[in-house]
Amino acid sequence: SLLTPNRGHHALFRGLEDLEDFDKLESELQLKSSLTTNLTMIATGDDVQYESPRDAVNTLDTLSRSVPRRVCQHPFKKNDIVWVCRTCQADETCVLCHACYKGSDHEGHDVAFYHAQAGGCCDCGDPDAWDPAGFCSRHGPAASVGSSNRPLSGSVIFRVQGMVPAAVDWMVKYVAMTAIEGFERTEEEQEQLHTQPTETPTQSRVEEGDVEMKDSTDVVTATMTMTAATTTTTEAEAAAAKTASGRGSVRRLIFSPSAAGSSRRQQKDLPYTKAEELGMLAKRGGGLYLVLKSDDIHTDRQLVEAFRDLLGTSSLYTESILQKVVQALKQFGQLVVWGTTEILAELSTTQIRLWLDGDRIASGVFGSAILNRAKILTRHHGLFCSILTRQELQIEQHAVTVLQWLTALARSCDPLCQKVAESISPDRHLAPLLQADFKLSSRVTKYWHSLLLTLLAVPTFKSHLAAAYCDTYQSVTAEYARGMGVLERSGYALSVQFLNRVTYVVDLVQRRDLLGKLGASLFQTLNVAAVPVDNQQRRLNPNHFVMMNRRYSPCISDLKCVLNVKGMPRLFASKSGCFLKDWIAALGLGQMMDSQVWRDWTQGHVEVEHRGWVGAFNASISLGSLFERLLSWDDSDPSPIQDPHSPMSKNLMSCVELALHVLVTGVHEWQTLAANSYKPTSYTTSLEPYKRRSASLPFSTISVKMGSVLAFRALPVSQVTPFSFHLPLHRFVAACLREACLR
């Protein structure tokens, strides 16, 4: 840690420069890592010693010349050219990469192209997604032409069959679980204290006899350590001693170097605080590092202010360099913003020596230092962080190499792609890794998703991934609703690969209640943005980050995919499912959101409009975009679920019955609650007419003038009462009634 301001500023600037070539360095990690040569030697059974990892990768490439791949599955990166041929595609989600399009014949077809965001893959060679006449010469049935036709060695397949489960087991055990534990370390300390310090996952599991993956190459990390230690040693010691016992501790320990020799014996039976556990974990794991995760709900200005609070000064770093830090955070998805060097700068020499010696109080001082920094970001600014050891950060790098090698292995040829896909279990592997999707390192997530896209060429694996995606959907969506993660780096980008296929969707709906989980997730996400308006009703706050950043959009997109599958909209009118109930509840939250008050003519025109209308407008449009899809069925349509024992195969309402059901259970219940909170005003001339609220609806003179007793002279609300035209529940009932009239 550099204590002088100028040197700290220069160190941060150099750290930003080092990140400029990081993407390129990381993409070539398998070409430099000894893990590549070791894994390839095990897979091929060769006794030869590869001169470099590149030679090992070339060995995998030779397999593709013997049995080339039939399906492209090229994963799209941001700004890649993506081609659409409406003549050849099976649906609007099927596309080609630029290389496959240039190698295929689409003369006279209806084609277009666009620049991709992150996610998605090429469908060339997949007859379920693309017309075989539009395949390129390298994929589909033509893929075997020009190959060497040499059979792949059975020993290679046998070895891969044993290696892949072991490698993914290692991913789950050391990467996914560690990522979850890293976030738990930043959470508030519970009242129940542990009796013994927990060990780092790496050490405890290695001691059980596992073989730890090691890499002899230098560690290339997308981390940046920021230095802002401006307090004196005395101030640091005072602050550390003040927090030595950690948050939530039931005792107060006083740091005394003279008593350090006997402190261990005296404190042996006392419970450990989280700070003490972290301090001891740091000693075993090579230090602690605070990792800040990116999201798409905080603005650049908010992140700059968070960094200023973290660094503890407003004058040390310029606005321009902090803006560059923010851009680096968004580009890479995470940054190490505080580390062991900065923590040690806050401790005295005596405290550091005692910490290295394993002293509990000194360990508590060390742990409290990083917990206090984490609290600045999490509690004060609403950001998400994790605390990891150096060993755990190194394991992330090993995981990137392993994933790159597995992807190269799967892309080499169809038999090995099939074997890799078969070796990954949906429950043992896919579900835990998808569960940790937003907590995994962005480096790991990038190459994990690339591997999944490659393996989706295998139909069995696609069904397994669909099942794991469905099983983890609600918990992952709950984390996204809290503000965690970035949409374009999440597993949501994978759903379009299987939620548009009849076979997979019908199975998910019947066996795993996919529709019910989508409806529950949509309601739970919107409910995060709801606030109580009285004792019984909740209403969406249009200024909440869920609304302003459309954090409900993954649920809407997945529902659109499912409802586009033939027969699925018919299940919406099922009395046995829970989707309809959650759908009505979700629409009820949107009733009267972004309420406005009529302005008096003396107040003039609106000069500054409240930004809440944006969130309310987008939510109304998104919910309304599902109305037509939900009602795109006929009363005579059968259920797509053929199993007679399934509750989804019967109890289907007609459109008239559905309209009545929504009126009774939706509008009527909402109107009853609204009426209970309605308070009329007294009829007196001292109250201006525009402030009056009648006790009942007016029916008098309007029948004479208009010839209808149902027409109202005025709304039964005063002009000073907040009112909104956002009534999604009423609009959906209107859509149901319109559809019933058309039948």
TrEMBL record:
GO terms for molecular function: ubiquitin protein ligase activity; zinc ion binding. Residues 205-214 have a biased composition (Basic and acidic residues). Residues 193-203 have a biased composition (Low complexity). Transmembrane segments: none annotated. Residues 185-214 are annotated as: Disordered. Pathway: Protein modification; protein ubiquitination. It is an enzyme of class 2 (transferase). Belongs to the E3 ubiquitin-protein ligase UBR1-like family. Its EC number is 2.3.2.27. It catalyses: S-ubiquitinyl-[E2 ubiquitin-conjugating enzyme]-L-cysteine + [acceptor protein]-L-lysine = [E2 ubiquitin-conjugating enzyme]-L-cysteine + N(6)-ubiquitinyl-[acceptor protein]-L-lysine. The keyword Endoplasmic reticulum does not apply. It comes from Fragilariopsis cylindrus CCMP1102. Ubiquitin ligase protein which is a component of the N-end rule pathway. Recognizes and binds to proteins bearing specific N-terminal residues that are destabilizing according to the N-end rule, leading to their ubiquitination and subsequent degradation. Residues 70-141 form the UBR-type domain. Gene3D superfamilies: 2.10.110.30. The keyword Transferase applies. Pfam families: zf-UBR. GO terms for biological process: protein ubiquitination; ubiquitin-dependent protein catabolic process via the N-end rule pathway. Keywords: Metal-binding, Transferase, Ubl conjugation pathway, Zinc, Zinc-finger. GO terms for cellular component: cytoplasm; ubiquitin ligase complex. This is E3 ubiquitin-protein ligase. A zinc finger (UBR-type) spans 70-141. It comes from the Eukaryota.
